Fold:
Amino acid sequence: MEGVGPNFKTWGGRFAAGTDPTMEEFNASIRFDQRLWRADLLGSVAFIQGLEKAALITTEERHQLEDGLNQVMLEWAEGRFELRPGDEDIHTANERRLKELVGPVAGKLHTSRSRNDQVATDFRLWLRGEMASIEHLLVELIQTVVCRAERDVDVLMPGYTHLQRAQPIRWSHLLLSYAWMLHRDKERLDDMRKRVNVLPLGSGALAGNPLGIDRALLTHLLGFDAMTCNSIDATSDRDFVAEFLFVASLLGVHMSRMAEDLVLFSTAEFGFVHLSDAFSTGSSLMPQKRNPDSLELLRGKSGRLVGHLMGVLTTLKGLPSGYNKDLQEDKEPIMDAVDQLSMALKVMRGVIDTLQVDAARMRAALSTDMLATDVAYYLVRKGVPFREAHGAAGRCVSLAEKNNCSMEQLSLEQLRSVSPLFGDDALHLWQFERSVEQYDVPGGTARASVLHQIEQLKHKCVQSSQPRH
Structure:
């Protein structure tokens, strides 16, 4: 059949000689863009309806093409589609197979359509679906963190700044700090959807479509929210790729920060948490080792995601107007980012769900010097300006160090040597529960405040599970 075979090229008419085999391999993208097969076929099914409406094909021809495209889709879905050496990309492969099935009428499929607007459409369709899957996994992770926080709400631990023990907090408060980071990542995914879900199809190679294709119809058929407004921009725009990679990178960074905390807390030096066997590995030499490889890989994957973002931005920065083949390099980074992020979200969820918390070890790490700020607050409540109260609390710390004792061992007489405002009630300052409970503002670490955060996040997760309109 004419035009079908190992040397089939959608662009071959202008060339008299064949392509160098090395160039064939260098130019081909079918190795990775075959993942777009469903999006490519859905775009073609919609496009032939546009061709029919524009009277560029008959109803009978539309039926022939539609039947053929559905057959190609079934072959892909069942794993029966056979790639050929001449299949340069997913568009070429699908069109080649369609022509084998329905004959010369397949040549009308590409009428007034360029691979430039075709791949831009395919890519947006594919990414839209992948974003929905990632958002689902992200919501599941948030829910797992929230459930863990609710379960462990009465566990107290040291809070850290500069990796130094700072103030007593609830373990749940720390967990929820991660949940709020992840929630912002979800908001970014939600927000960028409106920029991804814009239809480029009907833009041609760069100048538009001269044959009356109804782009509004295509927008409706393919479930896009809007259509692009400029055909040059439509075919060369990869902002949505860079934006997704930024969102993915920041999500990866947030999981990396979570992982780093948990790596530290799982060491013998801290002993606050213990990873389950399911998310730990051992050493090939040292039998006693229990390595947090799941968490270490989560840290490592974040660097990989950031690298993909930097690579795509570097590719984009020097491009002239219109489509350029450099843009073929946008697929592998984003496809790998989707794969790595999907695995990372599942692993992090498993780690949090199966984590063992040593509440006693956390409690034992609390010390009364962490209540020095409470001493300042005590004096503030007595009317002392905060700066003076801060200085007095510091002198209490110094006094305890000088006497080689802890702060709660200071006598009332010694406290009054720092400030006469210390009364008998000052002896109650050294209660960790009391300290934590004073932070009862929204967003604080008091029990009621933490439980309120939990309810807020539960509500947001329920909203996320509702279908889009």
Notes: The chain has 18 helices and six strands. The CA atoms of residues 142 and 391 lie 41 Å apart. The radius of gyration is 31 Å.
